[in-house]
Amino acid sequence: MAKGGKKKKAESVFLVCEECGDYNYTLRRKPGGEKLKLSKYCPRTRKHTMHTEKKK
User: Is 5 among the domain residues?
Assistant: First the structure.
C-alpha cells in the first residue's frame, strides 16, 4: 500500500500590473511560499512594469 500524504495541487494565479491594474498573465503554481513580484511587459502602457500575484 502507498502511504497517503496530502498532495498540493497547482492553483491558477494572475499577474496584475501595478500601474494600470490589468490582469495580463496567468500562471499555475503550487500553493505556499511568497507572492510573486515580476517585471513583465504591459500591453496597455507599452512598457515593462512590476506585476504582482493575485488570486481571483
Answer: no
18 Cβ partners below 8 Å, 6+ apart? 49, 50, 51, 52
In degrees, to the nearest 5, what angle opens at C-alpha 50 toward C-alphas 56 and 37? 60
**Domain assignment of residue 4, yes or no:** no
pLDDT tens for each residue of 2-56: 666 677 889 999 999 999 999 999 999 998 889 999 999 999 999 999 999 998 7
Domain of 22 in residue numbering reads as: 11-54
CA distance 40 to 56: 19
